[in-house]
Structure formats: structure tokens, C-alpha cells
Amino acid sequence: MNRRAALRNMALIMGGAIILPSCLHDDKGKAVVKLNNLTVDAEQEKIVNSLTETILPKTDTPGAAELGINLFVFKMIDDCAGKEQQADFITGLNKFADAAKQKMGKPFVDSTDKERAAFVSSVEKLGKDKNYKDDSKLMAFYQMVKGQTVFGYTTSKYFMTKQVVYELVPGRYNAMFPASKATV
What is this structure's pTM? Predict the structure, then answer.
């Protein structure tokens, strides 16, 4: 064997030895989103992803998951909310998960789209009830996610280019527009 082939093979073996541990690393339980202030695990991330998709499902227009609204929600809460709001978000997220499991008998993520929509609708009704003050953290979480989902959608590239027709100057100049005789 010549020396060049031996060096090339050694380089491949060393490169493989360096890369192999990263391929075998198990990221179960770790969130995909990198956040600075919030600590969210993979299960909590799935709940928020499912909730944003329930609020803004895919129809003839893209849904929240397709537009990446779920990542937008996490980033906005992480960057723009205060420490107290972030704590309320995490507490409300846990209460939301517990309430969903209690009401539906299974986790929010594992339920069908109709079951999710019914549960979110019941949470929405509780939020409109003035006498209901039992789960203020749950309602704060839901309102934050819903508000950021709508905001993320209405400021997304898809919405701003495909849904809203942007015109630099509203109306066009039409020199051939028929005018009636001016009355003096």
C-alpha cells in the first residue's frame, strides 16, 4: 500500500471517529428551539406546536406548522416577554397540558384535530366568562400563544405577499377617466 492511500484512509477514519458521536447522540426530551430565557422540553414544544396548528390549521392556505409560526411564538415569548410573563407562560403551558389530559383522557398532542378544536373552543369560552378566574395562568398562556400566532401569521412572508396585495401608491392615475361637465 502506498503512503498517500494510507494517509487518506487514516484521515477518513479520524473524521469518522470525530463525527460518529454526534450521529449517535440521542436528543429525546430536548427541545428543537434554542431559547435564551425560556426552558422548554420537547413535550412542551409539541404542545405549543399542536396548539398553533389548531388555532391556524392548514386549509387552502398554509397552516401554522408550515409557516413556522410555532417557532415564532417561542422566539417572541423568549425575546419580548418579561420574566414574569415567561414564568406565567411555562406555568400556563403545564396547566394547559394537565387540563387537556384531564378533559380528553389523553395528551393534547395525541388527540385528533376535532378533539383539539373542541378543547381549544372550551378554553376560549372559559376566557370570555367574566366569573371564571380559576386558571388565570392557563388563560394567560392561551392568550399569549393565540396572539402571537395571529401576529406571526399576519406578518409572515406568505401573508404579506400572497394574501395582502401591496401597492406602493394606492390607486392609479387614469388620464382617460370620463368626467362630467363642471358646474360653476
Answer: 0.71
